[in-house]
Specification:
Number of strands: 2
Strand order of the largest sheet: 1-2
Shape: globular
Order of helices and strands: HHHEEHHHHHHH
Largest sheet: 2 strands, antiparallel
Low-confidence stretches: none
Mean pLDDT: 89
Structural class: mainly alpha
Helix content: over 70%
Amino acid sequence: MAPQQDSASRVDRICSVVRRAIIERALAPGDKLPEDALGERFGVSRTIARQALGQLAGEGLVDLRRNRIAVVATPTFEEARDTFDIRIELERLVVRHLAGRLSKDQLAELHAHITGQEAAAGGPEAASIRLATDFHVRLARMTGKPILIRYVSEVAYRSGLSLSAYGRPHSPECGVNEHRALVDALADGDREKAVRLMAEHLESVAQRAFLPETHPRTKSLVDVLAPYLED
């Protein structure tokens, strides 16, 4: 592997782990992300860690402050609401494209994913949150449209950050049922129903979640990221 490719893969690895930690609320808005701690945890230089933080900042998940201090971004309530409004419109495009076009293999993949959500419902909340987000990213990828995939993925992760800032505990049962109804509409080729269900689902997520909640953090960044690197 060329040095440039190796650096890019290391940056992608850091971004992937930090995104997941944010989505699962192991990292909360305002938590510090020191370059030296990231570099030590991933076995990379501070330059690589800085590049990863810059990429995450471009996605709206990290704020870069003076003196090279990076923290998990803290969206305002208005920004959090705007994120969901934009997400609803983007994911309407996703299901409008997919209705009646999913292959048997794709439908089987979605049903298997929902089954995984059902199995995780009684376990750690973090797993349910991650699987719920992955469902939407998976749908976007099935469109085969790179720009749509990119924007849906980024807004889904920003939504996770918003829920971390303002959300109450995740409610997996409602999300699973809504995902299953959505897939059924896509399989039936009912475009208008799929578009309506997606909008109602995401609006319900926002309405169920947007209550202030305190997230005390006592662990160091190295300790927080440890289980994600072992997974």
